[in-house]
Amino acid sequence: MEKRNKVAIPLVCHGHSRPVVDLFYSPITPEGFFLISASKDSSPMLRNGETGDWIGTFEGHKGAVWSCCLDTNALRAASGSADFTARIWDALTGDELHSFEHKHIVRACSFSEDTHLLLTGGMEKILRIYDLNRPDEPPREVDNSPGSIRTVTWLHSDQTILSSCTDIGGVRLWDVRSGKIIQTLETSSPVTSAEVSQDGRYITTADGSSVKFWDANHFGLLRSYNMPCNVESASLEPKFGNKFIAGGEDMWIRLFDFHTGEEIACNKGHHGPVHCVRFSPEGESYASGSEDGTIRIWQTGGPVANHEETETPPANGSASGKVKVTVEEVTRKVEGFHVAAKDKKTEENKEEASTDTTSVAAS
């Protein structure tokens, strides 16, 4: 096909040493928008959402980090880990603010829209709601999930919780006040990705063989499209709602027409299965995270050509990449984040080594 002969040029974001398993974009703030990534290397990373440039690393987890998110103002980050904790971080300094102990792996976390609550779920089959205004108080627990929890998010102005399970199909919608399931969106396979659209109208799910779109208010199935490969993640374009992306085991990131399901573009660049995809808040670009440990940021409408990939500076802050951004732009939000004086020599050594690194040509 002609479209596969064209090569999209992504920004390639290095830094993680193990697979990238979750991505989350902040809403647009006065300082721009930001991208946080979770990885099995135990260190979530914060980036400039437009350029992909590394801002900082949240250090403290002792196991793989499965989930990450930012609050509405991008002032705090949250992460859920295999070390049996969910943690809250100051996104301005990188400092850990709270660590919430669990009894098993935490697979999912989500800030409420009003930023006062943190929702977590994982292998314990328990939904926990932490009041961030009283972080030392025990969380509220909803303990009748039918399976280990894979994804969680809020909708209906924090009145409803959405969750999916790792081992059984369907998406469950919970009334926050009663703690009861009010609706189940049926799927034949476990849902590995669930997203509420920016306007609150749609729920987008990926369940391996298909991507489905549901009415977020009346819960009816609106569209279901079979995928050309097993997909793990999908995301709906937020501004116009006329496109969606999906990524999975074949390492390609596909762009589809929302109304017809027709494949518009198919971008290759990763060297391992794609675990997560997300549109930026205005839909002009989208990010993908892969088993290969990289994040790639793709322009929704191009550029498309036979050129080399553009690399952002690695997470050590070296300047071997090709993206031109000013120091003020990168550090405008989090000046000095994670870059301690004691690390200066290590960083200098890494910078010297990086001068021999060449760009990876898009395959």
TrEMBL record:
CDD domains: WD40
One GO CC term, this protein: SMN complex
WD repeats, residue ranges: 58-99, 99-133, 267-299
UniProt-listed GO biological process terms: spliceosomal snRNP assembly
Biased amino acid composition, Basic and acidic residues: 342-353
Region (Disordered): 304-323, 342-363
Transmembrane segments: none
UniProt KW keywords: mRNA processing, mRNA splicing, Repeat, WD repeat
Molecular functions (GO terms): RNA binding
Family stated for the protein in its record: Belongs to the WD repeat STRAP family.
Protein name (record): Serine-threonine kinase receptor-associated protein
